[in-house]
Each structure stands twice: as C-alpha cells, then as structure tokens.
Task: inverse folding
C-alpha cells in the first residue's frame, strides 16, 4: 500500500466532525472557522519509539498514548479538546499494525469528541507527532504562572504507578503479575484529565499536567509563579499496588520523581478551596491536597509535619 492509499484507507474515515472544521483531511491545509468569544489553545507532543515507549508496546497503546499526552496538555489549560493533526513516521507499511494504531487513536478521539483534521505520513524510524487544539471561553484558561504564596497544592488520581510499571519492565523491581497488568495498563493507556481540567478552570490559580514527575513539574509552576512549595509526603496519593510493591520511602520517591502519570497538578487559593472540592466531588473526580505554596524559592518536603530531605533523582534506589 502506497502513501496516498494508506492515508485514504486509515485516516479519512472517522467518527467525529466539528462544524468549525470547514475543510478537513484531503487538501494542502485544514481550514478552521474562528469561534466567537472563545480562545483556541494549541500544543504539540512527539513520541519516539524506544524513548517515550518501550519498543514492544502494542500499536493500540501507541495510538492511544500519542493522543492522550496531547489531550493531557489541553486539559492542563482548562480547555476542551477539539481537533488534532497527526504526523506519522513509519519504518514500513504494516496494515495490521496501522489498523490497531488507528483504533487507539480514534477510540480516544471519539470519546472526547476530537476530530482528526490532517497530518503527514513519511517513512523512517517510528515516531508520532500530534498537534492538538482545544477551546476555552475567551480569556478563561489556566497557566503555570498564576500561583500565589499560600495557595493549596492538589493532584488528581494516584501517582507513581506508571513509573513502577516501567521499573518492573527494566528489571529493577518485582511486581506481582496481576498487579503488573493493572499498572502496565496505566503506563500504556493513560487517561487524560479532560473533565477535571475544565472543572478546575473556574477555581484553580495555576495548573500543569504531570508528565515528567511531580517534583519536576511542580518546579515549573514554582518558577513560572515565583513561589516555593512544600509537599507533605504523608499526603501523597499512592496506590495499594505501589505501597505493596515497594518500601514506603521508595514508593514515595517514585510518586515524587517518576514520570508518565498524566494527572493534573494545580494550585487553589484558600477562598476557592471549598468551591473546588465541591465541584470535583459532584463530578466524581478524586483529588488530594498534597501541600502548599510559600514564599521560599525552593521545593521542600515534610513527613508528619517534620522537615525531611529527599533525593529527587528518584531512580537511584533501583540503579
Ligand atoms: P501535502 O503533500 O500537501 O503536505 P499530503 O499528500 O502529505 O499533503 O497529505 C494529503 C492529505 O492527507 C492532507 O490533507 C494531509 O493533511 C492528510 N494526511 C496525510 N497524512 C495524514 C495522517 N497521518 N493523518 C491524517 N491526515 C493525514
Ligand atoms: Mg505532506
């Protein structure tokens, strides 16, 4: 199958159509009509085989994850995802692989009402670049730079499971086989926090999605907002699997420095705290308050209110 047949066969039949997409796949560009009283947010993420996912990752997972990491960035802005373009570099045309990859892409797109509006297809080492766009009400979006000292620090979901799966794959830790299936699924099929992002938009002062690890990504908020922060280690949301698989210090360390969580980290002022918690609980979204920002320029940690030092280069324990 040649390039144009491949595009037609795999990428032009899709479930979602937006009225704002005046022209989709098939021309030199897609055309989008401007939307009154809204902003458009734009992001791009690339996944390279062997760097962003293990070489033996299933094509369905690769398709899912390529879209998910982009929707996670859209969620961190408090936006609703709308459409994506897909630049795909393939070593060869493997139709079974492509069918599965497309299932991963389109299942997630359909779930979040996202339309594929264009892309590029080339030959080379496997790599996937997606550009995603989303919309927010005009001038209402979240940034990394809005935190003030004294704001509360929250995360969605649980931290460290995807990193635990990766450490098991690398042969550094033992994980019981049923548990591995569960956390491997979290590594391969992350769920972008699209709904949570739009809910917290009304309450949060800043937000970021957790792709590189809690401490690293909190560092981005602190730097952009010119604040410091303290993390209460005893408050970290650790899954039962993580607690059961590692010593507690190692579990905390993975939650602090392991990547690939794709949860949201955000700050909220004292005044907005109750409103935020109520709105999220009505939506059935679990969040945990893990600390507070402060006037220092550093990130500190406490355990049962006592200051402790941590190594944020988390994988030393397993090296
Ligand atoms: P051009 O040469 O003008 O860049 P192409 O021949 O590469 O256009 O692509 C033809 C059409 O197919 C374009 O509309 C492009 O956006 C779309 N397309 C190409 N590859 C993909 C892909 N992987 N996913 C979605 N659309 C694609
Ligand atoms: Mg092209």
Result:
């Amino acid at each position: 199958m040649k390039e144009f047949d491949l595009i037609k066969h795999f990428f032009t039949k899709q479930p979602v159509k937006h009225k704002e997409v005046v022209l989709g796949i098939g021309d030199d560009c897609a055309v989008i009509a401007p939307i009154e009283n809204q902003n458009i947010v734009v992001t791009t993420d690339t996944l390279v085989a062997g760097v962003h996912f293990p070489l033996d990752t299933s094509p369905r997972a690769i398709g899912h994850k390529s879209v998910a990491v982009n929707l996670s960035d859209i969620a961190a802005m408090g936006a609703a995802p709308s459409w994506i373009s897909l630049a795909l570099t393939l070593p060869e045309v493997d139709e079974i692989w492509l069918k599965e990859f497309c299932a991963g892409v389109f299942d997630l797109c359909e779930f979040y009402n996202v339309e594929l509006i264009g892309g590029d297809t080339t030959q080379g080492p496997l790599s996937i670049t997606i550009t995603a766009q989303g919309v927010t009400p005009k001038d209402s979006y979240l940034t990394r730079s809005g935190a003030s000292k004294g704001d509360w620090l929250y995360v969605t979901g649980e931290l460290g499971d995807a990193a635990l799966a990766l450490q098991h794959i690398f042969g550094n830790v033992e994980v019981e086989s049923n548990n591995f299936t569960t956390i491997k699924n979290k590594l391969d099929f992350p769920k972008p926090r699209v709904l949570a992002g739009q809910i917290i938009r009304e309450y949060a002062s800043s937000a970021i999605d957790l792709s590189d690890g809690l401490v690293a990504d909190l560092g981005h908020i602190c730097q952009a907002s010119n604040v410091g922060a303290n993390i209460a280690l005893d408050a970290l949301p650790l899954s039962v699997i993580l607690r059961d698989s590692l010593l507690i210090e190692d579990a905390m360390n993975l939650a602090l420095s392991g990547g690939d969580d794709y949860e949201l980290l955000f700050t909220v002022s004292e005044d907005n705290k109750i409103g935020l918690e109520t709105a999220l609980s009505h939506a059935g979204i679990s969040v945990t308050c893990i600390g507070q920002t402060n006037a220092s320029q550093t990130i500190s940690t406490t355990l049962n209110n006592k200051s402790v030092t941590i190594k944020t280069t988390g994988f030393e324990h397993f090296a």
